[in-house]
């Protein structure tokens, strides 16, 4: 629970509907009439007296009391220990009973609270309220500009036995929390703050590896089985496609980028298989020496297994989308500018540079910015598993740019394809000549592959956008709400499927190139080689037998000759 959300969301409303927040002019000392604080949550906490004009009516006291009650219902997981003091000093400003002057809050205290709560404010997309502009408060407590910074209240009545027991109990509870959850105090804005550890190095809250926050253990198991099944299918399908391309001379430009796109999907599936081989705890968890806890990785460079899976996962996942742009670009050059297959082949190095250079730059950028994170559901190291902003920057935007650019180039290529089709039909005596032409077959194969890719990528972007929009709400859901928002696991499973369906369907594309005939030829050649090798072995064996027979006959002849001479 936190106070930040309600405090900053209702600040303007409180000011408009009550006179609780006073407008101070801290350059002029204002006179005040001391009166005991009647607000129960501020009474006997920091100081005893406030300005009488703050308590002109019973309704006003109840209004302040109710507002403080709203805040205090959320103060258990407060981001700053001085947050309640900040509230009280604004709702019930201190009136010095000796000088009868209002004493404002010290600017250093205000800045400390603003700094300590800055992380929560940023997560909630809020800004620090103008009424609490720290620059308007006195910086130091000086005679000419008095201010309160360390709130103390000295009791004139000694504590009774009941109060001593209550105080001791509260101290014990605080010591227990500080001893066991010392680094959890800045994670109070999270719905399940007890499952997180605040990491000073990153300034963020990390989920304990032994805990389940957004997804239950059963959900994680189902997702892991789903991912492993698809990864195996993707690996086998893409491996079959790549091996087919090795002994098939029909695959030329502008279709050849599909081969490298399929190869990228193959290595992408390897990253998922490595995650399964290394196990979740080894890949996605790391030991934090400060808190002595195993946490879900936020900076994966220190974990070798995480770094390896990230490089394979993110690098080749990005490469698949840029190879799609290269494919559509080659298609446009082939149809619009009538670039020949030989020219495209001779300049293939530029296409590789076009793909691998931006892919490498994006990957290096992620590594330099230390944005490698482990995903809670799958335990895979990639980008955006714990940060919606990084998900948008390094995943959604690159995918969307590649998808839009590729669709534009593909559309241009097919527009210029239609006039060529009509021209060939008019000049041909055979009405079916166009349907059997080489260009028609290439266009059909590229069109089929493009339909699968565009559909899968678009759905994947929608799924990731769903995560981007709702992630903060899932994590920072307030407990006072009746219904708790939960992520739909089906959408995440759909995203896993769409990220691999193109690789799985690569075998469909390769079968359109008479893959069966190619493999029959390959196995026939292999069988022929085996037969030749077997025949050669038989010949060598027969030769050895003949040599052995001749040697035996020679030895017998020598023995017979010696016996006759004797």
Automatic annotation (TrEMBL):
Residues 547-566 are annotated as: Disordered. The keyword Signal applies. GO terms for biological process: canonical Wnt signaling pathway; non-canonical Wnt signaling pathway. Residues 1-16 form the signal peptide. It is found in: Membrane. The chain crosses the membrane at residues 225-246, 258-278, 321-337, 349-369, 396-417, 446-468, 488-511. Disulfide bonds join 42-88, 79-117, 106-147, 110-134. It is a multi-pass membrane protein. Keywords: Developmental protein, Disulfide bond, Membrane, Receptor, Signal, Transmembrane, Transmembrane helix. GO terms for molecular function: transmembrane signaling receptor activity; Wnt-protein binding. InterPro entries: Frizzled/SFRP, Frizzled/Smoothened_7TM, Frizzled_dom, Frizzled_dom_sf, GPCR_2-like_7TM. GO terms for cellular component: extracellular space; membrane. It comes from the Eukaryota. It holds the Pfam family Fz. Its main location: membrane. PROSITE patterns: FZ, G_PROTEIN_RECEP_F2_4. Residues 220-518 form the G-protein coupled receptors family 2 profile domain. Coiled coil: none annotated. PANTHER family: FRIZZLED, FRIZZLED-4. Belongs to the G-protein coupled receptor Fz/Smo family. This is Fzd-4-3a. It comes from Dendrocoelum lacteum.
